[in-house]
Write a structure and sequence with these properties.
The structure is a homotetramer of 328-residue chains. Helix content of chain A is 42%, strand content 18%. Chain A is α/β, with parallel strands linked by helices. Chain A starts with 6 loop residues before the first strand and ends with a helix. Chains A, B, C, D: Keywords: Allosteric enzyme, ATP-binding, Cytoplasm, Glycolysis, Kinase, Magnesium, Metal-binding, Nucleotide-binding, Transferase.
């Protein structure tokens, strides 16, 4: 029979994403509401190994729901990938009287939690916090909505100056393996073309599309390029290629980079994080373990971590079609 | 047998909402892509009655995806509620060679379209554009996401000054019949209490909650009040009541009003509108009529208008619970 | 001979304004740079009387430059207006070894400091922090630039929906005695008419102007009304009056209220606050007292508090003229 | 005796900047107010040569005050640098009955205007529109305030993620010849170090400063680098250098690029542009020519173009000192 859970730890791990603080706050406040003890673990699994813990109460998380980043810090931790590292972490948890933990992060963080659970039969629960929105078992990850708004707002600004000068812009956005940010922000920003890792449309099609766009009288063109796109050229090489093969355009490049991870979370991300935090704590108290919390439409669901970490959510084919139609 | 559809009209009707322009753009571009003619109708049903039409092509909707409001204007139209008014409107459509129309709006606009369809067997399709998110048949209406972000951003600002002065704020947000904006923005903004039309928690509970909040050491309190809340006092009366019964607080009121309807649409609203516009045109071409386009999770669905207009979407009970837990 | 200054206190007093935190940070860091001790006083003069002090070092003010409100809290304090209250405050300062203080606030706060200085020969220095921009001796007060941007952003949103419905909006902004916010934000937002405390243009002129605006084909009208305007009607009475005398308009009202005091400070306010904090500390160390720091063009200047508190800065006549021309 | 001016042309030239539309609107409305004819010239001097003109009235500039970019488009034009090109331009102006023009742009644009004036005795007036704020004869250029706010907002976002990971960021901002953007945005964003073209602090000092910052317990470091900084390494080389010589940091780079030119103008830029437009038209009507409009404190002033184009405004030494103190 499972041990009763009286103290829950919460940590953030891997790359940070906007809304992580709202999720931390939710875990802490749900514990307070249910009269369970709660401790924060700083700097992800590294802090777990080092015992960098701090008791939390409802007031510890005042005024953080609207802050980007994570007040618990995050870090990637090689040591936790070793049995010795995990042993140390387990010792620290036992010493601190922790009965279960909630980890907010992505696939790598969940994999660590799953192995830890398997080794020590220690209750764990995952909350998907990543801007990439690529995790199986949820329609939305915490931070994605904020990231696509950040991208769209920047492209709106670039469009101002692009239109004033009849320019073509290649804009690189995050997404090494998946094109969710590129596709959604591209449709939202009215991009003329969107290059994602899931498709290789080829350079010929790109040139054709740009020619058509120019001919149709558009005063500027924006091409969104996901980091991991498969066209075989990075965004600077694309600029050179197009300037050589399509000299009608004055081409510029913008690499958006890390600003996409920051910023005050949107209302959507704050609400999503608040809901997931409640669900994570309640699921642990119901004796569930080794799951990730997700959302489907308006329902919170649980997916075994073993399934959640199998690859990436595919991009929406229907949205690719919408994107094609919109660039008519 | 249904007449082949060669020309589609698009109009916005009722209160405007951010993202309507993205929906107009999508209808127009989908027509262009499918090589169907498209005409815009200005000023809603009033413009339909008066024949205020304009042919649209793909370039007519350049640079509007990021603009709030509606380039087609909107208006409430009493004449369309009469058989004579609708007869005039039908004559204008026939004269202009229009075979079907897409109306972007709320329940009132859909009811008009349904009656029109019943009277003239004229193909119609609805797209839900309202900030209230209360329309049956869709998880999200166009404009809701932008509105809750506007509210949350304003409350973030008010929180700054409230915290600096240990103040209590009553903030009135839109929602005459439904509390979706209040509940979501309230959870997103970390409000201490949320008053919605669907619940009457009573004044006693409000006082208790505020006393508890003060005692727990919070430096400020924000209470969100939906316009149509059932507590029996408007937001200014609430201020007086609390100042009389709970003199520990310095109380202020803020009525957010029409700013909630405006602003550049969020990425979510732009993408949603783009998808719905494609679906609306394609459904008409497939011979569907008298439906409203909606979204469930990531799937676009059709609901008969006769069902969509039956009342309002209830608020999410689970989210009310999350709200209670978060204010611990 | 003046006593050498080795420890400086900093407080915020009166209404808060965005950028106060940047000014606090600047005072604290300048002390650290010059190897002077620094203490914070919480809750304005009330905290001074109660000895609510905290030692500060350069790290105490990390990550506050971009936050609205004031981390030191603010309060209005009646007791400091009495000789007994000021005596208590002086005792607390002496007990804590404080040799001088910098007060960030408005006229009321400076008056208190001046009286205190006169009574105890205690070195004081003022930094103008108020959104009203009405303090003699400086072209800009900390918070004004943020406030006018907040107002303009909200009006941009309201304009969206006003244009979609051909509406007239009366928008009340802060400014009981002065029209700086109304005039600057009104010009910035392209308002059709601006009503300020310094002028009474009369209701007739307002009606004429609105008629002309309607006739000229504008799709919406925005009238900015400062709280203290002299037209003899509040913003709701104005609505009734115009609806009665000019029935061609659908009129709406929006009272912006306290959101104008909050929000992340603009770059201008952050830089201004940073510069003023340095100047305040350096002036005290040079033996200056009873001055307020101000800015003229790009030069920091000192004005005796006795002059700074004499009335309000008048509005710029040339800008009123620009406003008239812009509404052609 | 000077010819009476009955028709004024307005154009934007060179790189665009936010607020140019507000300046265009102001020139057009001032002409309308003073009952002078006004024509717009599209695409800068290129459009002048090609006669790409359009008559403007007060309504032509509705709803543009809040838009980034320039509705008149801009372009760099080599042909205008030749006597033949200018001759063509003059012929077009004469043919269109234009008596004077206002050019909104930077040094290059003003030089062209001055030469044109010298050759044809044609009245010209300059309005400084550039984000660089480097033009002699004015404390502020149109667009600078918006640009520094854009930079600060982005750095606020990057700070979120930098703090969560204890990272060092090199952020490149615009400024090939001058450090105004870097210095102001750097102070506003609380940057730990600011590298500008006007100073070469040397790599040693940079390393020392970063070591000190790390030691003092800061959770992240932001270094702002102006494009034209003189440290002898670009931003990517700096990253490599620091990673090699200071392995305690995980370093990232962000090049902000063209987003700095776009975006809705701030209230400051809109008001400044409105005032300068009025002044430009009135100065022409008073018989002034070959001047640039500028602002000193709150006064609009005129500077002969021949002086305005002599080099760049130096950065404020006092602000460099503030910047040093703030990074204590």
């Amino acid at each position: 029979m499972a041990k009763e859970i009286k103290k829950i730890a919460v940590l953030t791990s891997g790359g940070d994403s906007p809304g992580m603080n709202a999720a931390i706050r939710s875990v802490v406040r749900t514990c307070a509401y249910l009269e369970i003890e709660c401790v924060a673990i700083y700097r992800g699994y590294q802090g777990m190994i080092e015992g960098d813990f701090k008791p939390m109460n409802a007031r510890s998380v005042n005024n953080i729901i609207n802050k980007g980043g994570t007040i618990l810090k995050s870090a990637r931790c090689l040591e936790f990938r070793t049995p010795e590292g995990r042993k140390k972490a387990h010792d620290q948890l036992v010493k601190a009287g922790v009965d279960a933990f909630v980890v907010i992060g992505g696939n790598g963080s969940f994999t660590g939690a799953m192995i830890f659970n398997n080794e020590f039969d220690f209750p764990v629960m995952g909350i998907p916090g990543t801007i990439d929105n690529d995790i199986i078992g949820t329609s939305y990850t915490i931070g994605f909505d904020t990231a696509i708004n950040t991208v769209v707002e920047v492209i709106d600004k670039i469009r101002d100056t692009a239109s004033s000068h009849n320019r073509l812009f290649f804009i690189e956005v995050m997404g090494r393996d998946v094109g969710h940010i590129a596709l959604n922000a591209g449709v939202g920003a009215g991009a003329e073309e969107i290059l994602i890792p899931e498709q290789n449309l080829g350079l010929e099609r790109l040139l054709d599309s740009l020619k058509r766009s120019k001919k149709s009288g558009k005063s500027s063109s924006i091409v969104i390029v996901a980091e991991g796109d498969k066209i075989g050229k990075n965004v600077f090489e694309l600029k050179d290629y197009v300037e050589e093969h399509l000299p009608i355009y004055d081409v510029r490049v913008s690499v958006l980079g890390h600003m996409q991870r920051g910023g005050n979370p949107t209302c959507f991300d704050r609400v999503l994080a608040s809901r997931m935090g409640v669900k994570a704590v309640e699921a642990l108290l119901e004796g569930k373990t080794n799951y990730m919390v997700g959302i489907r439409d308006n329902d919170l669901i649980l997916t075994p971590i073993s399934e959640a970490i199998k690859g990436h959510t595919p991009v929406d084919e229907e949205l690719i079609r919408v994107s094609d139609i919109m660039t008519t």
